[in-house]
Every structure is written in C-alpha cells, then in structure tokens.
Amino acid sequence: MKDTVAVKAGNSNNQLEMEVRDLQRTIVELRSELEKSNLITADAVQTARRDTAQEIAMLKETIGELRNELERAHILREQEVQRAVSSSQDEIGQLKRHISELRTQLENLMAEKSAAVQAVHSTYSGEIQQLREMSARLRDELEGARAAKESAVQKERMQTADEIAQLRETIQSMRQVMEQLKS
C-alpha cells in the first residue's frame, strides 16, 4: 500500500514537472513571438517614416522647380515688356513729325501689353491656386496616411498588451493550480 502511494506521488510530481517545462517552453515561445512582432512593428513605423520623408522631399523639390519656372517666366515677361517699351521709345524719338500717329500707336500698344500682362497674371494666378490646392490635398493625404499608420501601430500595441495580460493571467492561474497540487 505504501509503495502504491509513493508511486502515485512520484507520477504526480513527474506530471507537474512536465507541465512546468511545457509552460516554460510556451513562455519562451510567446516571448519570441512578441519580440518578432515588436520588430515587425518597428520596421513598419520606420518604413512609413522613410516613405513620408521621401514624399515630403519630392514635394519640396517639385515646389522649388515650379517656383523657379515661375520666376523664369516673370523675368522673360519683364524682358519682353522692356524690349517693347524700348522699341516704342526709339520709334518715338526717330519719328517726331508723326507724333500724333505714334501716340495713338503707343496707346494701343500699351493697352495690348497691359492686356497681355493681365492675361499672364491671370494664368499664373490660376496655376498658383491649383498648386496650392494640390499642396493642400497632398498634405491632407499625407496626414491621413500618418493617422492610419499611427492607428495601426497603436492597435498593434493594444493587442500586444492584451496578449501579455492574458499570458500573465494564464501563468498566475497555472501557478495557483501548481500550488494547489503541491498542497
């Protein structure tokens, strides 16, 4: 009879030891999975930041190029206006006897130039407005993408925290079971 009780107690201890080893292996595996998940999340965040930085750099470069193009167009327009004014003044100096005729021509020329300047100004104003709208739209898209990525990272953190809490509860309940089995 004593031998039977001793054998049962030995078997019970062996089962507990096996359960403890299984739980320890499970804990190690879960830790490994958690570390992998953290690395994947960190990589995703870093990739998102790199992509965002690249997109910002491209947008800045585009804006710079457009600004340069606008400045070149303005300079060309100024040069054209200067050439036209200079040409008109030379013509007036050479043709003093036809002053009344030249006045009429000059007024017409100035009106055309003013209309051309206005047309160019209107064109560039429209382009500037379009660029501002595009910039605002791109900014909104970028902020939306950031928010989505931050939300995904936050969600992953919450899930990981929930898993850890569940694992701790499981470990605690298993410890209680082990303590009950010991006593």
Primary descriptors:
mainly alpha; 183 residues; rod-shaped; 97% helix; 2 helices
Please tell me about this protein's structure.
The protein starts with a helix and ends with a helix. The protein has one domain (2-182). By secondary structure, the protein is mainly α. The protein has two helices and no strands. The protein has helices spanning 2-94, 99-182. The relative contact order is 0.09. Helices cover 97% and strands 0% of the residues. It is rod-shaped.
Provide a count of the helices: 2
Helix residue percentage? over 70%
Q: Can you tell me the number of structural domains?
A: 1
Which quaternary structure do these chains form?
single chain
Alpha-beta content class: mainly alpha
Would you list the SSEs in sequence order as H and E? HH
Give unreliable regions as ranges.
Answer: none
Mean pLDDT, rounded to whole units? 86
Number of strands: 0
Taking all Cα atoms into account, the compactness measure Rg is 40 Å
Shape verdict:
rod-shaped
Strand content: under 5%
Distance between the termini: 21 Å
Major pleated sheet: none
Task: Give the gist of this structure.
It contains 2 helices and no strands.
Question: What secondary-structure arrangement, pairings included, does this model have?
Answer:
Blueprint: H1 2-94, H2 99-182
